[in-house]
Amino acid sequence: MRLGIRTAISALVLTSIVVSAVGVHLLWWRTAHQVSQTLASTINDQIVSAVGDELQSITGEARSSRIALRTLLAGQVIDINDVRKRQLVLVSQLRSQTTISWVAFAAPDGSFSAGHKRGGNGIETIEITVPDRKLRTDRYELAGSDLVLKESRVEDTTYSVTDQEWFREVVQSGDDNWTTLTSHPNGDRPAAVFSAPIDVDGKRAGVLAIIIELTRVSNFLSQLTVGKSAGAFILTRDGAPIAVPDSDADELTPLKLEHPLFPIAVDAIRNASAYSPGEGEPFHTKVTRDGKPYQAVLTPISFPGWSLVTVVPESEFLGPVQMTIRNLLIGLAVLIVFAGLLSAWLAQRLIAAPLIKVVNEIRHVERFDLDKVQRHPSRLTEIENLSGAIGDMAQGLAAFRKYIPADLVKRLISDGNGARLGGAIRPMSVMFIDLAGFTGMSERLGDRIIPLLSRYFDGVSAQIQHHNGTIDKFIGDAVMAFWGAPAPNPDHAVDCCRAALACRRAMEAAGLVDDRGEPVRIRIGINSGDMLVGNIGSEVRLNYTVIGDAVNIASRLEGTNKAYGSTIIIGPETRRLAGDSIVVRELDRLAVYGRAGGLQIYELLGMAGGLEGKPDWAVSYEAGLAAFRARDFKAAVAAFETVLQTRDDVASSAMIERCRQQLDNPAGEDWDGTTVARTK
């Protein structure tokens, strides 16, 4: 059953009143859910920042200690074999860094020296000697700012530092390494260790270890203010505790897992099947326990496999919010009823009648009866504007319905021309741009290439249009654009060169990278000359484009960049027309693919106002090119090698190879130095 617009508007207004009660409830639920997530995210962001700063402080102190101790030991400021001095250095470094639990040195023979904090008021030194496997422990307590020896003992030990992963990893790789450990000479406690090699006179003297027992992190978590009753935990992916808030935990007091929210944090990370710490993104989840809902946020942190789990009871912040939202929505529902009644009356008088007329005009457009379209005045600006827009659309379609490219249609509408076959020969410039390595990139990325292409097209299109260019078409990854039409442009060569440089800068600024992390590069070919420009095609489908030999040469020059390692190559006519406005280096005399005669090709380096003359390396290259054409190949090689001393230049390397070929196999008298392109 079909309804008229008057009936439909009245029915919709009345229906909105009927469903307002349902809408109030749904809106309240959605708002409450969003508020809970927003507050949980805010709390989580604060905690992540605090934990990140603490971990950064820990790693910073570890690296600072590594630098200080390596300087003393590797630089032989102290004798590395002097046990007493070595222990004094380790203890002094341990006392200067608040977050570090151990500072240790292990020699390749298995001997071990360390300083170890005992909570907040004590330090012990540990020495393991080989081969007798004796462990000596000296325990000290702080008396003011001094350490007083309280106990010494010597005992047998089975602890072997050479069996420890942190020791073996550094010995094998020779690089600094972060890892975790549990086993210590005086017992088992979870910890993170930063180990680094110590070399003296080019020989491995041992391994330095900076160890942070994880009870220190648990103590830090207990000091965080996480709402009124929320909690923050550091867990592994399977829910094993790394750090749980415990104000008593230190090197002497083991970690207690009595926090009431700890089981909820474990459930959250174990049940989050879609969460991956390796992706680096926070994951929001909801956990219900004993009938009470909790918001949990799982955030990967800098240590591999560790996640920060923040648990916030919804009742902590939703109680007052729910009451406020409920009162607000009740008032809103009353307002909706009143507004609905008023809008139903106004709709009848102001909307329905003129809108029906506009709909009839749209029917004319649908049938392409464009001559029947009329404009209708209305008291509502929007409806009158809509009627005017439909009239303008009909007028435009009447003249340009044969054109497909939207930007060209807009331009031709503003010019007031019709869509007719035909064209004219004009002096113009044309540019071809494509992505280097696009074929392989598209095969590897598949449909994931689309966002990259979109950003690439956006960047170059904006620069082309900004510099008075007309985009002809997109062909795969290629962009074809021209200057000098539809509107004549006597500076078409200069504008084209300026646009090419702007496209290169835009791509560099965009920072696009491929799937291998390599920067995405573009290649540009430019040529100028007389071209046929106009409406080419059939009565059914037209294309406003340019064709001609100069266009084909520009397409070949774009691909020629691959052989010379360049980004922008221009033809001789572009060089002539641009004159002193641009800075170039002559690359070669090239017979492009499909043409017998050679032409001079140039690499566009910049605009004259942006460079302080031609670079020295470009001058050297052109000197080498002149010597090459004069058959003075040794002088040419010397000039090209001068370029290579300044920069990595593919063109110079290629010319050196050609010079050497001529030295080995001289060409005949008809040789003129022209390079013949074998491929497009």
What does this 3D model show about the protein?
With 680 residues, this protein is of the alpha+beta class. It contains 17 helices and 22 strands. Strands 14, 15, 16, 17, 18, 19, 20, 21 and 22 form a 9-stranded mixed β-sheet that branches. The protein has an 8-stranded antiparallel β-sheet with strand order 5-4-3-2-1-8-7-6, with helices on both faces. Strand 15 and strand 16 form a beta hairpin. Helix 2 runs antiparallel to helix 3, helix 11 packs antiparallel against helix 12 and helix 15 packs antiparallel against helix 16. It starts with a helix and ends with a strand. The relative contact order is 0.06. About 1% of the residues have low confidence.
Feature tags:
680 residues, alpha+beta, nine-stranded mixed beta sheet, eight-stranded antiparallel beta sheet, 17 helices, 22 strands, flat
Write the topology of this structure.
Elements: H1 5-18, H2 20-74, H3 83-96, E1 102-106, E2 112-118, E3 122-129, E4 134-143, E5 146-156, H4 165-173, E6 177-184, E7 187-200, E8 203-213, H5 215-222, E9 231-236, E10 241-243, H6 262-271, E11 283-289, E12 292-300, E13 306-313, H7 315-366, H8 381-400, H9 406-415, E14 422-435, H10 438-445, H11 449-466, E15 470-475, E16 478-483, H12 492-510, E17 522-537, E18 542-547, H13 549-564, E19 568-570, H14 572-578, E20 582-591, E21 599-607, H15 616-629, H16 633-646, H17 650-664, E22 674-676
Parallel strand pairs: 17-19, 20-22
Antiparallel strand pairs: 1-2, 1-8, 2-3, 3-4, 4-5, 6-7, 7-8, 9-10, 9-13, 11-12, 12-13, 14-16, 14-17, 15-16, 17-18, 19-21, 20-21
Helix pairs in contact: 1-7, 2-3, 2-7, 7-8, 11-12, 15-16, 16-17
